[in-house]
Design a protein that fits this description.
single chain; 295 residues; alpha/beta; Rossmann fold; four-stranded parallel β-sheet; 38% helix; TrpB-like_PALP; Cys_Synth/Cystath_Beta-Synth; Cysteine synthase; pyridoxal phosphate
């Protein structure tokens, strides 16, 4: 009998077709269910690649104190994988993060530090960087680590290409660290330069966990605007409503950032004569139950 690690279950997530939200019969709207990863989100992929690659290069060992700022999903993925490699990990996140996320990170054995909500993820990043500068910690730095986007170049992009029988015409993804969209864009454009890459950002004054419109000084270093063909903005209300409709009409239980991505895709397909549109459903809805998303 073969022996499998839980790490072998990262990736190869299913793609399912929209049955009710898709109003354009000439377009196939597909959801890639990243919540099926063992850690519950798309972030399992870059978390594994960042840790494993850093270990292979000798940049981190069991003696290294690792720190990372996170809005949630990356932290959970890092905590899960760090536990398997017996690594010392501190995660820093805003204090208004959902209870489920904090508890899950701690369940995996990570130290969780909460920073003031009013300074957001930027404040968490500043705190982590101060620990690196003044206390000898090592940061994986998902915002500037090329292993983030390479994880999607090596896995997510090829899966989409193969699972759509090379027919994908449009790829839609929320933009946070931008690793998903950078890696998938790089791979899909290599296969077919005409594949359109659509990024999703919040409208001004909208707060959607997992989707950001970064101030210039915090723009992820891995981001290359030339790899995104179009940006569609969605409001917090649109993201919330679409997340709820995903659960009620499609049986897809996901978070607000996934609702935002699907809201953008629904805007997109209204403009298309035909196509195969793939949207990243980045996580599961059960880690938002203590919030008001599904009230």
């Amino acid at each position: 009998m073969n022996s499998y690690s839980i790490l072998d279950r990262i990736g190869n997530t299913p793609i399912v077709a929209s049955k009710n939200l898709n109003t354009n019969p000439k377009v196939q709207l597909l959801f890639k269910l990243e919540g099926n990863n063992p850690g519950g989100s798309v972030k399992d992929r870059p978390a594994f690649y960042m840790i494993k690659s850093a270990m292979d290069r000798g940049e981190i060992t069991k003696e290294t104190k690792i720190i990372e700022a996170t809005s949630g999903n990356t932290g959970i993925a890092l905590a899960m994988i760090a536990s398997l490699f017996e690594l010392d990990l501190e995660l820093v996140m805003p204090e208004n993060s959902t209870k489920e996320r904090v508890q899950t990170m701690r369940a995996y054995g990570a130290l969780v530090t909460l920073t003031p909500a009013d300074v957001g993820i930027e404040g968490a990043r500043d705190y982590a960087e101060s620990k690196v500068k003044d206390h000898g910690y090592v940061m994986l730095n998902q915002f500037g680590n090329s292993d983030n986007w390479k994880a999607h170049y090596m896995t997510t992009g090829p899966e989409i290409w193969n699972d759509t029988d090379r027919q994908v015409t449009h790829f839609v993804s929320s933009m946070g660290t931008t690793g998903t969209i950078m890696g998938c864009s790089t791979y899909l454009k290599e296969q077919n330069k005409d594949v359109q890459i659509i990024g999703v950002q919040p409208t001004d004054n909208s707060k959607i966990p997992g989707i950001r419109k970064w101030p210039e000084q915090y723009l992820p270093k891995i981001f290359d605007k030339e790899k995104v063909d179009k940006v569609i903005e969605v409001s917090e209300l649109e993201a919330r409503q679409t997340a709820r409709e995903l659960a009620r009409k499609e049986g897809v239980f996901a978070g607000m950032s996934s609702g935002g991505a699907v809201a953008a895709a629904l805007k997109l397909i209204k403009t298309l004569d035909e196509g195969v549109v793939v949207v990243i459903i980045c996580d599961r809805g059960d880690r938002y139950l203590s919030s008001d998303l599904y009230d």
